[in-house]
Every structure is written in C-alpha cells, then in structure tokens.
C-alpha cells in the first residue's frame, strides 16, 4: 500500500510533463484515468481498513464511541464519493 501513493505522484508528474509537451489528448486522458483509478484504489483500501478495524471494534463495544466512529466513517464515505 505504501508504494501506491508514490506511484500516483509519479503519474501526476507524468501528466504534467505530457500536457506541457502538447501530447495527444487521448494519451493525456488515459494517464488521467490511470491516476484517478490508482487514487481511488488507495482511498477504498484505507476506507475498508478503517471500517473493518475501527468501526467494527467500536460497534462491538457499543455506546457513544460506536456512534462517533460510525459518524466518522459516514463522513469519510461522503468525502470519497464527492471527490
């Protein structure tokens, strides 16, 4: 998982380079799509980890902590969907 953010950084740098080189639009869009997919993969993996670990633990405990964690998870999902 730690290699993916670096790969996304390189993809973004590559996109900037090919835009500045006036590369074909289809090639630029393909690179943007690849970077978007990579970003979404990282985001979903992090969200999945949070849901399976933090929220599941809090839910088992119950009470106010569970409600807060579920609210935080919901906020994260909203943020991801709107990005």
Structure classification: mainly alpha
CATH fold name, please? Answer: Methane Monooxygenase Hydroxylase, Chain G, domain 1
Q: What is the radius of gyration computed over CA atoms, rounded to a whole number of angstroms?
A: 18 Å
Unreliable stretches (pLDDT < 50, length at least 5) are none
Biggest pleated sheet: none
The fraction of residues in strands falls at under 5%
Q: What's the total helix number? A: 3
N-end to C-end Cα span = 20 Å
Beta strand count: 0
Query: What overall geometry do the principal axes of the alpha carbons give?
Result: elongated
CATH class value: Mainly Alpha
Order of SSEs, N→C? HHH
The average pLDDT is 86
CATH superfamily: Metal-sensitive repressor, helix protomer
Summed up, the domain count is 1
Helix amount: over 70%
CATH architecture: Up-down Bundle
Q: Can you offer a commentary on this structure?
A:
With 83 residues, the protein is mainly α. The chain has a single domain (3-82), classed as Metal-sensitive repressor, helix protomer (Methane Monooxygenase Hydroxylase, Chain G, domain 1). It contains three helices and no strands. It has helices spanning 3-20, 25-61, 63-82. Helix 1 runs antiparallel to helix 2 and helix 2 (25-61) runs antiparallel to helix 3. The radius of gyration is 18 Å and the shape is elongated. The protein starts with a helix and ends with a helix. 0% of the residues are buried. The mean pLDDT is 86.
What would you say about this model in short?
This protein has 83 residues and is mainly α.
């Amino acid at each position: 998982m730690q290699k993916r953010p670096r790969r996304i950084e390189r993809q973004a740098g590559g996109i900037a380079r090919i835009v500045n080189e006036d590369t074909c639009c289809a090639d630029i869009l393909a690179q943007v799509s690849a970077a978007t997919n990579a970003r979404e993969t990282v985001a979903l993996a992090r969200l999945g980890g949070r849901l399976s670990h933090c929220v599941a633990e809090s839910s088992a405990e119950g009470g106010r902590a569970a409600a807060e964690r579920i609210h935080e998870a919901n906020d994260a999902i909203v943020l991801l969907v709107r990005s």
